[in-house]
Amino acid sequence: VLGCRYVRVFLRAPDGSHEESAKRCADVLRPIADHAKQRQIILAIEPGASKLSAQGDFLAHLMKVLDHDHCRLMPDFGKFRGDVYAGTQAMMPATVVVSAKSHDFDADGNEKQFDYHRLMKIIVASGFKGIVAIEYEGSRLAPVEGVKATQQLLKRALAAV
């Protein structure tokens, strides 16, 4: 109805081994992904709804188990548990869109929580050519100012790659 290409999905993976949890998640996601295919949209799973689904390596493994073109991944820098760089790198082969999240900036305009230059290097090295969405969740800047600051940071980081 809205004409969107992607639908963001939070996945609450059950606790357990990676293999068993991935199998159970794939069983649930497959009919939803089949429906998404009929609607010509792609499900974009982002990390963060559970302990396992906040781990890039688990989500990457799930994509191999599911093996469905209409269910892909969406790294979101602010939603990982653990190493944001390793999580992003693990997810890139199955990534359809990236969420460049920011919270606060230092005096040089760099995000305080993540090294955007390092993240953009990972993304570019993967061969990714899709959309990089911007999310600002900070409180120091107004929402529009935060998005613009994130956009400027992304431009600088991509120019340096």
Keywords, separated by commas or semicolons:
two-stranded parallel sheet, alpha/beta, 5 strands, 161 residues, single chain, globular, three-stranded parallel sheet, 42% helix
Describe the structure.
- This protein is α/β, with parallel strands linked by helices.
- Helix content is 42%, strand content 16%.
- The protein contains five helices and five strands.
- It has a three-stranded parallel beta sheet. Strands 4-5 form a two-stranded parallel ribbon.
- Helix 2 runs parallel beside helix 3 and helix 3 runs parallel beside helix 4.
- The longest helix is centred in the first third of the chain and has 21 residues.
- It is globular, with a radius of gyration of 16 Å.
